Fold this sequence. Notes:
The chain is of the alpha+beta class. It has two domains: 2-145 and 315-389, no CATH class; 168-274, Roll (Chitinase A, domain 3), CATH 3.10.50. 52% of the residues lie in helices and 11% in strands. It has helices at 2-23, 28-42, 53-56, 70-78, 82-85, 91-113, 120-142, 150-159, 161-164, 180-190, 197-207, 211-214, 238-245, 280-310, 329-332, 368-376, 378-389; strands at 59-63, 66-69, 165-166, 169-177, 219-223, 258-260, 263-273, 276-277. It is elongated, with a radius of gyration of 33 Å. Mean pLDDT is 79; it is low at 1-12, 17-44 and 342-390.
Amino acid sequence: MARKGLEMKTWTLFAALSVTLMAGCGDKKEADKADDSLKAASTDDALPAGLTAEQAAKVVAKVGERSITVGDVTRQINRLSPYIRRRWAAPEKRKEFLDKLVRVELLSQEAERLGLGDDPEIQRTLKQVMIRLFVKDVLEKDVLPSSVPEAELKAEYEKEIDKYKRPEQVRASHIVVATKTEATKLIAELKQNTTDARVFREKAREASLDAESKDRGGDLGYFSKPAQRREDEPLIDPKVAEAAWTLANIGDLYAEPVQTSKGFHVIKLTNKRPEMNRTFDSVKRIIESRLLRDKRKEAMDKYVADLRGKSKVEVFAENLDKLKVEVSPEEMEMPPGMMPGGMPPGMIAPPPSRDKTGAPAAAGALPKKAEQAVKGNSARGKAVKAAEDE
Length: 390
């Protein structure tokens, strides 16, 4: 009896993994549904809603010594998204869905017969599924926080108030020259072309005496009125700031040179930024998301550190030098932490193709090595090829 229960759980996990792999090709809702599939696989003895124990136990197909019951088919259909589930609601479609489950079972049994249950690639996949179940069923309940106290959110808001409240600001550029005559001439020249911002930037790089800003084309950044200046703003000479604030339109030049201890400034308004006043309620979710992410990472890191402390972990770093990693030019251009196809490391890669109806994939659901091994036998290879062509 125990053996039968183990086989049933193995079958349920394999079928759930098929649904998970298909969901990997879809959107977030599909991924969430796949997580529910994995969770359901760990509690597969639970009766599907609306079925009695007697109804759920009715056998609809047998594949070798293993039975597929009404409960099994119901669970697999219910684990699909509502949109896909509707396709299988019609009685005439249920036989087709069952046929696909039979195909999954046939191929999984054949893979087991060939000894592929011990294949490293399959073991890695099962380990990933097991970790996902462990995180969902254990860590999510007992270790990882799911919310942040309101008082802590408000304290964080006040701590970072400058991110959410800011006075109106302007952005300006300047060119600093040695004499008023030179500055006046430069203003007249620049007024001939106020629409092309490149002209001012090129002049600043060429002629400005302000070493700090000339390489930026004279850009001073955003700043408030002198009386409202904040510590995180650039330090602008009050005379320059006041002149910039008198300009009404983006692209305007201050009519005359502004003299400071650095020399004579030619000033241009390049942008404006309105006042920002974001209330606590408007940013609460943003703050909570960030704090919760940090808290969950901290809790997970601590949990793993505790496990590491209880276990014997040996690292032989010197052997890392022996690694031979092949990186293609395409992979070199990818953002750090991404894999070909946009999959982050640690995720279960989807099969090359999937059934558009959402039913469990057959040959596509097998790991690559398992599929190759099955195809390696000519008789079985023909059967798999026929299944793929349908």
